[in-house]
Amino acid sequence: MASGSFTGLLQDVEKAGRYLGQAMRLMVGQPDYEAYAAHARAVHPDRPVMSYEDFFRERQQARYGSRTGRCC
Fold first, then answer.
1. Is the dihedral of CA 52, 60, 45, 17 positive or negative?
2. Residues contacting residue 59 through CB under 8 Å, at least 6 positions apart
3. How would you classify residue 3: left for phi > 0, otherwise alpha for psi between -120 and 50, otherwise beta?
4. Share in percent of the chain as helix, strand, coil (round to 5)
5. pLDDT at position 29, please?
6. Are residues 36 and 61 in the same domain?
7. pLDDT tens across 12-42, in order?
């Protein structure tokens, strides 16, 4: 196997690992700040990017804040 092929394979494995990690975090409800920050900088350059703490707080509020006394 040529070293270029090995490097390409290694890059593919690293990329798959990043996607798997992101998918696992989303499954358990942990927001992905890096994806948010990259999107915000690329699509909304005129708006400030929230800090990690503000982003996490906003995501928690969006997920849990609107429930109104229901048990299920």
1. positive
2. 31
3. alpha
4. 70, 0, 30
5. 67
6. yes
7. 999 999 889 888 877 876 778 888 999 999 9
Measured in whole angstroms, the distance separating CA 29 from the mean position of its chain's CA atoms is 10
Report pTM.
Answer: 0.55
Question: In terms of domains, do 1 and 21 share one?
Answer: yes
Q: How many domains does the chain have?
A: 2
Domain that residue 10 falls in: 1-28
Position 57 in a domain: yes
DSSP structure string for 18-42: HHHHHHHHHHTT---HHHHHHHHHH
Run of H or E residues at 72: none
Indicate whether 70 belongs to any domain. no
